[in-house]
Amino acid sequence: MTKVLSVASECAPLVKTGGLADVAGALPAALAPLGIEMRTLLPGYPAVLSGMNGGEAVVLFDDLFGGPATIWAVELAGLDVLVLDAPHLFDRAGNIYLNDEGHDWPDNPQRFAALSYAAAHIGVEGAGAWRPDVIHGHDWQAGFVPEYLHGLAGGDDHVPFVFTIHNIAFHGNTGAEMLDTLMLDDWRFTADRYEFWGQISAIKAGLTGAAKVNTVSRTYAEELMTPEFGMGMEGVLRARKSDLTGIVNGIDLDVWDPATDPEIARYKTGKGKAKAKKILQAEFGLPESDGPLCVLVSRLTHQKGIDLLIEALPNVLARGGQLALLGSGDTDLEVALLALASRFDGVGVKIGYDEALSHRMMAGGDAILVPSRFEPCGLTQLYGLRYGTVPVVALTGGLADTVINASPAALAMDVATGVQFSPVTADAFANALSRLCDLYADPDVWAKLQRNAMKQPVGWETSAKAYGDLYAQVLKS
Ligand code: ADP
């Protein structure tokens, strides 16, 4: 039995802002059949603490970055969780990363340094009787784990660290004057470790300190080593090329199952898309139409190409297509989308975060749109595949790896599962939407696309094995 401590700043279903939470929430169950026991170290946000009933205090800190803290071992939503209960850092209302003005909490460096420090402490001292063989950290919030392991273990002879990048855009950088506050050794503040243009960089600490680094698709692993996608970390990643792999995310096949989805059953739509589509159109205030109903569920940011959608959309509307969009994020995009909805009958927009509605959208949509400028893996196209909701995606990152474009050759071989476009521009996206309308207009071709999409394996089986191999490799070396 290999014991792995997963260190994550969010974990579904307890607390989620994006795909990282889904992965952190799904990995333990995916790894269990391989003889891997995973426990997840999570910050004690109100949403996590409120679900706790009992639990065992396994570590006490008198002063963890400005206040006392306790690590509780507890089972939550079927997960073995180690909750870092540090009220001065995590017990506050609102977004887990941002204050009410939408800016990073000013003490984010301390908050996630504390998470990393607690992980390293568990790696060296254990949590009660439990001690991990491997620590697996996610994104910059776990970046300092190897630094603290080095400090607490008094050298490099410590439990190995695996680091997964879900999004390189967030670096967790802070000024060099924070070295003492963050309890980092200043003699290790060098360019080959975690110094980045004069700043302290949490993600660089993880990238340089990990025994193995991976990201969530093969294409994104390659892209990360280029200036266009590396966001300044391309050199660091190129230096780690031999230790860098891509392991595509899976989805939870029980949560995303069109045959048993309670959101579908509730509306008695059975497996029939036509009925689910009608219900969804009504929910978004859309008339019935002959064209494809496109859905999109996303954070509304520049990364996600929402501005491209706004430009490209008239193409599909002119051909009887429709859009139902759910998301929240940048105010200017929210405003532009609401304006679009008031201008066109065929556009329905809901601003907000609504997990249940996202299920109904996968059920009732004909196509799921993902026009991201970069996309480490992407999950909504995977939900779409499982629900026979044909993905229309930018040719980048995980979107390139998980969709087979309906080229003439792929159609002839009956392997196509969606539509891809490149370059990631409004024109190319508009062309892709036209292609979508052509495909939709031919019921035989469309039915084949849907069947192929639904046949594609999108669960965790293969990727769980790949993570198992990664742990085995770091344990051997
Ligand atoms: P990212 O992690 O960059 O946000 P992913 O596609 O990897 O993108 O994961 C996003 C996850 O968040 C998916 O599970 C998606 O369904 C969900 N999601 C995003 N926005 C919303 C929303 N407004 N309502 C419901 N679910 C959402």
Secondary-structure topology with pairs:
Elements: E1 2-7, H1 19-31, E2 36-43, H2 46-49, E3 56-61, E4 69-76, E5 79-85, H3 87-90, H4 108-125, E6 134-138, H5 145-153, E7 161-165, E8 173-174, E9 195-196, E10 199-201, H6 202-209, E11 212-215, H7 218-223, H8 227-230, H9 234-239, E12 244-246, H10 262-265, H11 273-283, E13 293-300, H12 306-318, E14 322-329, H13 331-343, E15 347-351, H14 355-364, E16 367-370, H15 380-386, E17 390-394, H16 397-402, H17 408-412, E18 419-421, H18 426-441, H19 443-455, H20 461-476
Parallel strand pairs: 1-2, 1-6, 2-5, 6-7, 7-11, 11-12, 13-14, 13-16, 14-15, 16-17, 17-18
Antiparallel strand pairs: 3-4, 4-5, 8-10, 9-10
Helix pairs in contact: 4-5, 11-14, 12-18
Quick overview of this protein structure:
This protein is of the alpha/beta class. The protein has 20 helices and 18 strands.
Walk me through the structure:
This protein has 477 residues and is an alpha/beta fold. The protein is built from 20 helices and 18 strands. The strands form three sheets. Strands 3-4-5-2-1-6-7-11-12 form a nine-stranded mixed beta sheet, sandwiched between helices. The chain has a six-stranded parallel beta sheet with strand order 15-14-13-16-17-18, with helices on both faces. Helix 11 packs across helix 14 (355-364). The radius of gyration is 23 Å and the shape is globular. Bound molecules: adenosine-5'-diphosphate. Adenosine-5'-diphosphate binds at residues 18-19, 22, 297-299, 326-328, 353-355, 358, 377-380.
